């Protein structure tokens, strides 16, 4: 079984899959920009109780798998990350400004999915059978 995270009062294992898209789906992400975006993530994430598990990119979006704590405010973290990384990436890679001339690097929207563990149907069946006597 996977290592379960814990704090003083609870145990948990919460995986998420996040997809962030470049504003207007501009094709600006290359390996160095993706690596820098990942470094920014790794700098900010611990303050929110977030641990990076996987990172990969295409030319107009990134996929991130991470673990979080129950108390983590995911939307606050994502917005903080997008703000900081937009500012830094556009400053450090001036070529981005040719395709994204305004402040934002990322689209305002994102896709966040829970991941890991057992399929929802298995959990549903387990809960439904609680209290039933086994012969």
TrEMBL record:
Domain of life of the organism encoding this protein: Bacteria
InterPro entries: Transposase_17, Transposase_17_sf
Transmembrane segments: none
Pfam family, one: Y1_Tnp
Domain Transposase IS200-like per the UniProt entry, residue ranges: 11-130
Record-linked PANTHER family: TRANSPOSASE FOR INSERTION SEQUENCE ELEMENT IS200, TRANSPOSASE IS200-LIKE PROTEIN
Stated name of the protein: IS200/IS605 family transposase
Annotated gene: tnpA
């Amino acid at each position: 079984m996977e290592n379960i995270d814990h704090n003083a009062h609870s145990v948990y294992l919460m995986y998420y899959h996040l997809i962030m898209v470049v504003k207007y789906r501009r094709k600006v992400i290359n390996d160095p920009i993706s690596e820098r975006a990942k470094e920014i993530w790794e700098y900010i994430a611990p303050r929110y109780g977030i641990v990076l598990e996987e990172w990969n990119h295409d030319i107009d979006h990134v996929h991130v798998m991470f673990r979080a704590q129950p108390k983590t405010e995911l939307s606050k973290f994502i917005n903080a990350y997008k703000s900081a990384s937009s500012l830094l990436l556009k400053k450090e890679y001036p070529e981005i400004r040719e395709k994204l001339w305004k402040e934002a690097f990322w689209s305002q929207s994102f896709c966040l999915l829970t991941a890991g563990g057992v399929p929802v149907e298995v959990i549903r069946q387990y809960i439904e059978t609680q209290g039933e006597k086994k012969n």
